[in-house]
Write a structure and sequence with these properties.
Layout: E1 6-9, H1 17-32, E2 39-43, H2 46-53, E3 56-59, H3 66-74, H4 78-90, E4 93-102, H5 110-124, E5 128-136, H6 142-152, E6 157-160, H7 163-172, E7 179-181, H8 194-203, E8 213-217, H9 228-243, E9 246-249, H10 261-269, E10 277-279, H11 286-293, E11 298-301, H12 304-312, E12 317-321, H13 324-332, E13 339-341, H14 347-359, H15 361-391
Parallel strand pairs: 1-2, 1-4, 2-3, 4-5, 5-6, 6-7, 8-9, 8-11, 9-10, 11-12, 12-13
Amino acid sequence: MRSPKTAIWGYYGYANTGDEAILSSMLGQLRRKQWDQNIIVFSGNPKHTHQSHSVKAVSSILTTRFTDHLIRLLGRGRVNYKICLKAFKGAELIIVGGGGLFFDHPDYNIYLLNLLNLIDKALKKKKKVALIGVGVGPIHHESSRQKIREVLNRVDLITVRESFSYDLLTKIGISGDKVHVTADLAYLLEPALLKKITETLSDYKLEKGDSPVIAISLCGRHVDRPGYVKALVACCEHLIKKYNATIWFIPMQTLADIDDRPGMRQIAAQISKQGSVGFLDGIHTPEVILGLLKQADLVIGERFHAVLFSIINQCPVLGISYMPKVARLFTELNHPEWCLDLPKLDSTILISTIDKLWGKRQKITGDLATFSLEMKVKAERNFELLEKVLNG
């Protein structure tokens, strides 16, 4: 089968480990099927995407608003914009995803409407459009629901990463026959080689010794929430005292305006026994982050893909739900009790839940092994379904 000229749209090039893991997994699968000869990725940082993933990339600056189109066509960035337009016009297949792209906010829905308008434009240009491994929701506005119905009922394929997204789309009015429940593409990610992980730890003067390692990946901006820092510091002190644990802070988002590192440093700096704290604050590939988390005995994960990486690694994980997608992942796992709601977070419930997980580590590892295998099979199905669309 001839490889179609393919454009990939997602949240790429924004220094988010989870989304970069999705892109890495997607490209890996497309390359295995030899569909990678004509791929262009729309990215917030095309140079980084090209260097990191060995793929052609252009700026993610498409717009459907006429005034914005004129400004970009005539402004200082017009060369990049024309390259972007050329990539869009030349694409025969648009892959949207994966990840949680389809949501709006209580106060506005400009982002979602713009994404749906771009999909609508692609459909009107007679391009095939496939939504692969996406998450949907929350959706607050009726105008969002109307636009979703209008546009997504016309695409060629929709695969969603969990059943909640399926239920929401069908409730909005998308034909159930069009939507398939699969899994997040990042379940197909493989960790970096152990030699690379050992070298990376050495760069931070860390090693996996006899003491248990607790890895922590948080949404750094939440340090401004009342009681948040106090609860996390108290939990770390407890883990060090009771289990002689070493605490590794591993950020998942490192873009300047939404960088997790400053907030996580505030927590790390307040732990009394600094010799038991490691802070891995460099920028690493998703494969390296996955491998680093594989060294942990337990993970506290607020970022969605920190939890997902722990599942891949079959490592006990306590989640902190700051968005519905985090809690939904634990519901899919059949263990909602392993996830705490951010607004209710305090040191007592955090420590109590951690101690319960610690005492069940062996059973939890077995449960995660079964679940992660199921998710990997479901993630592979994304590409089986895509192949049917391309052959149709």
